[in-house]
From TrEMBL:
It comes from Marinobacterium sediminicola. It is a multi-pass membrane protein. Belongs to the drug/metabolite transporter (DMT) superfamily. Small multidrug resistance (SMR) (TC 2.A.7.1) family. This is Spermidine export protein MdtI. Keywords: Cell inner membrane, Cell membrane, Membrane, Transmembrane, Transmembrane helix.
Length: 106
């Protein structure tokens, strides 16, 4: 496993944290949560920038996107009780399939 993959996974975790913090901020009415969201997303992109030094940009960004979307969907379900319908889960499944196809093709 390359260091770029660790940076990428760290970036995903920070992005999910940023999304949860943003939800907690209630439209930035809770400023500390809002500030945490901003710092977390800036840190996520900093790690993503480090990741693309050793990973192809298109793959890194695609993997980051699908893991962040899936992770946020799962985290908001666990933390806030928000649920996705089957069509949304189908969409996430198609995103994952697209990443696998990109990886196989390239």
């Amino acid at each position: 496993m390359s260091i770029g993959l660790f940076y990428l996974l760290g970036s995903v975790v920070l992005d999910i944290m940023a999304n949860l913090s943003l939800e907690h901020s209630d439209g930035f009415r809770r400023r500390r949560w809002g500030a945490l969201a901003v710092v977390a997303i800036m840190s996520a992109f900093a790690l993503l920038a480090l990741a693309v030094q050793t990973l192809d940009l298109f793959m890194a960004y695609a993997i980051w996107g699908v893991l962040s979307i899936t992770g946020t969907a799962l985290a908001t379900w666990m933390v806030f009780g928000q649920r996705l319908n089957w069509i949304s889960w189908l969409g996430i499944s198609l995103l994952i399939l697209a990443i696998l196809l990109m990886r196989l093709g390239g």
